[in-house]
Design goal:
about 80% helix, single chain, mainly alpha
Length: about 280
């Protein structure tokens, strides 16, 4: 019996022992993530507090913060709504061209960001195909904050769809049928049965779309117009600092972006963990 139990224990250990695995994980994490991030902080420490505060709170930088984080949050929220609908359609319905649409969802992943930005700027320019249709209504997209929002929606949509889609595929349809058979409406079934199941995935998709949007550069600069105080995003402002050889100023702005992004992502992950605990408690 002892021999069999020992063999079973060895069979479960597909990867090396705990100490070696954890050591390699910490080494890799430190080399790829922690060391570069710590270098950003160390470079910022070369500045005095007054210089740091003046750099990160100037009027132009604050305007870029508002645009970057505001547009990123709004784009992620819009992607949650329409990305969730798209995932629902791809999972629950059969129609001609379904495989083609499913493949198009991954297009922002494969398309170079600069190509996406140029394409969006061409389409939404006042003389572009879509810009011409919006111009009579007084809607200007290209070279405005609205253009930034459109670009961030474009690059963030696949994160929501690909996160929610597998959860919908694995959802138990028997629960929905049971709820409907007991007299629940379709809306009540969605709110009480389906939505709690996909909520953790929705929050994950929201976090991924937001994280991608805050650091996006290539697809935004072409359609934004990059006008100071109007359509200038924070990553572009950091590039401008680097081109002026103001490395300390660029890293100071990067530190602020890093801290704000970390706080927002931590809040989203905390909400996700709370949702999962509540679901687990409800099943028990």
């Amino acid at each position: 019996m002892a021999f069999l139990s020992k063999n079973r224990a060895k069979a479960r250990r597909v990867i090396p022992g705990f100490s070696l695995s954890v050591g390699f994980t910490l080494f890799y994490l430190g080399l790829i993530v922690l060391i570069p991030l710590s270098a950003v902080f160390f470079k910022t420490f070369t500045m005095t507090w007054d210089a740091f505060w003046h750099t990160v709170t100037s009027e132009r930088v604050m305007a870029s913060y508002r645009l970057t984080f505001g547009a990123s949050l709004l784009a992620a929220f819009i992607n949650v709504i329409f990305g969730g609908i798209l995932a629902w359609v791809l999972v629950r319905y059969k129609f001609p061209g379904k495989r083609l649409i499913d493949a198009f969802v991954d297009l922002p992943f494969a398309l170079p960001t600069a190509v996406a930005g140029i394409t969006l700027a061409t389409l939404y320019a006042p003389n572009g195909w879509l810009g011409k249709l919006l111009a009579p209504w007084g809607i200007k997209v290209a070279y405005t904050p609205l253009g930034v929002l459109v670009a961030l929606i474009f690059i963030g949509l696949p994160f929501v769809v690909r996160t929610v889609q597998p959860v919908l595929e694995e959802a138990e349809k028997e629960l929905e049928e049971a709820a409907i058979s007991l007299g629940a409406s379709h809306w009540q079934t969605f709110i009480k049965v389906i939505f709690p199941t996909i909520l953790p995935a929705v929050l994950t998709g929201f976090a991924l779309a937001f994280a991608r949007a805050t650091g996006e550069y290539g697809s935004v600069i072409f359609i934004a117009g990059n006008m100071p105080m109007i359509s200038e995003i924070t990553p572009l402002f950091m590039i401008t600092k680097l081109e002026q050889y103001d490395y300390a100023g660029a890293t100071a702005i990067a530190v602020v972006m890093l801290i704000i992004s970390f706080i927002l992502l931590l809040a989203i992950n905390g909400l996700q963990a709370w949702t999962r605990r509540r679901q687990t408690a409800g099943r028990e």
